[in-house]
């Protein structure tokens, strides 16, 4: 009976980890739970080369994220400038129309 409850617990735990949301994180490497924010190495002893490789991968991912945010920021800034230009164009046109109406009223 004890072995059955252990199997159920293991099954429940593996199902629980599979259903965890990834929170938009890239797929986890070996030794990490999907979407895990905590690094959990497969073996307790990680060589310096393995650490360096892992940090280089993290650095590359962060660089890609920064580049993507820069692109989004640039696109947002361009859209904002277009909207401001359009608004000032409408304001200029509205001012011309109002001035025209004022002139017509003065003549009448």
Main sheet, how many strands, which sense, barrel? none
* Spatial gap, N to C terminus: 103 Å
Radius of gyration equals 30 Å
Helix content: over 70%
Provide a count of the helices: 2
Helix vs. strand class = mainly alpha
General form: rod-shaped
Strand segment count? 0
What is the mean pLDDT?
A: 77
- Which segments are poorly predicted (pLDDT under 50) over 5 or more consecutive residues? 14-23
- Percent strand equals under 5%
- What's the order of the H and E elements? HH
Descriptive overview:
With 108 residues, the chain is an all-alpha fold. The chain is 71% helix and 0% strand. The chain has two helices and no strands. The longest helix is centred in the C-terminal third of the chain and has 60 residues, at 48-107. The protein is rod-shaped. The model is unreliable at 14-23 (pLDDT under 50).
Structure, briefly:
Helices cover 71% and strands 0% of the residues. The protein is built from two helices and no strands.
Distinctive features:
108 residues, mainly alpha, 71% helix
List strands and helices in order, with pairings.
Elements: H1 2-18, H2 48-107
